[in-house]
Amino acid sequence: MATFGTTSATANPNPNRSTEVVQPPSDSVSSLCFSPKANVLVATSWDNQVRCWEIVKTGTSLSTVPKASISHEQPVLCSTWKDDGTTIFSGGCDKQVKMWPLLSGGQPVTVAMHDAPIKEIAWVPEMNLLVTGSWDKTLRYWDLRQPNPAHVQQLPERCCALTVRHPLLVVGTADRNLIVFNLQNPQAEFKRVVSPLKYQTRCLAAFPDQQGCLVGSIEGRVGVHHIDDAQQSKNFTFKCHREGNDIYSVNSLNFHPIHHTFATSGSDGAFNFWDKDSKQRLKAMSRCGQPIPCSTFNNDGSIFAYSVCYDWSKGAENHNPATAKPCIYLHLPQEAEVKGKPRIGTGGRK
C-alpha cells in the first residue's frame, strides 16, 4: 500500500468540511460509538463525561441534537452499546463500568469493577456478556445479573486494545502480545502471538469474517494479520500516517459495516479509507489541525464520526487549551471512498 503523504498540517481543524457536532466535550475525546439501531452517537472524554447526540440526516445534510450526559468520577476512556440500542456502557480511570439505560431515561448504575483504569470494553450479544480489559492486567467477563465477574482472565501485561467479532476476541497488551480467544471456550487462550509490528499496539479491529484482525501501532503502521497458520501467507503490513521523517500513531481502525473496507485515523490529523483485499488506499482525506484520537462508522456506514483534539502524546506541557478546542465531526463517505476495488495483481503494497 502507498505510504501516507499529504501537505503539512495547517491550523484548519476542519479541512474536509465535515459537519461539526454541537456542544462537544470540554476536554479530549477518548472514544466514539454509534448506536447499532439508530443514528445516536456517544462520546467519552477526559472531562469525566459521557455525552449523547441524535444525528439527523436529511439527504446530504446532517444536524446534531445534544440529548443527555452522565458523569464519571475520573476521565472516561471507553464506551460501547448494548446490541438492542437502548443502553450504553462506559469505563475509565475510576476503575468502574457504568451502565446507562439511555432510552428508558434510567439512571446509570455501576456493573463492573477493576483494580486499575478500564481501557477497553465490549458487549458480546451472542453470550449476553460484557467484556472489560484493564491496566490491572486482567480481562473480565460480566453477566449483568451478577455483581461479580463470571470469569477473570489474567493477561501478561496491561490491556491496550481489544476487538470482538464473535467467536473471535483479540486483546493487544503493552508487551506487544496479541492474545487470541475463541469465545466458544473463553476461559482458555486460543493463541498468543507477538504483534507483527515492532512498536506498541494502539488499536485493533477484527475482520468481519472473524479470520483475523488489523493491528495499528504508535509507529504509523498497520498489520493485516490472519489467525490461522494456513493463512499466514496473506499477512502483510503497510505504512500510513507519515510525512517525510514525521511518523504518527495510528489511533483507530474501523471496518465499514457494508463494504468491509476500513478506515485508519491518526495523530497526524488525517483519516484514510483502505481496501485490504486489493491492497489499495481508496481515499486520503485532508489533514486536520490536531490529532484524531478516535473514530467510528454508524450502523449502515453512511456516516463516519471522528474527533479532532489533542491526544496527549507530547504531554501536558505541549497542551494549549486556548488553541486545542476538542471537536467531533461527521463525514458522509462517498461510495468511491469506501467500496472495494478489484484486486490488480499484487501491486499497490509498500
From TrEMBL:
InterPro entries: WD40/YVTN_repeat-like_dom_sf, WD40_PAC1, WD40_repeat_dom_sf, WD40_rpt. WD repeats lie at residues 22-55, 69-110, 111-152, 250-284. The keyword Repeat applies. The lineage of its organism: Eukaryota, Viridiplantae, Streptophyta, Embryophyta, Tracheophyta. Keywords: Repeat, WD repeat. Residues 1-25 are annotated as: Disordered. It comes from Fraxinus pennsylvanica. SMART domains: WD40. It comes from the Eukaryota. This is Protein RAE1.
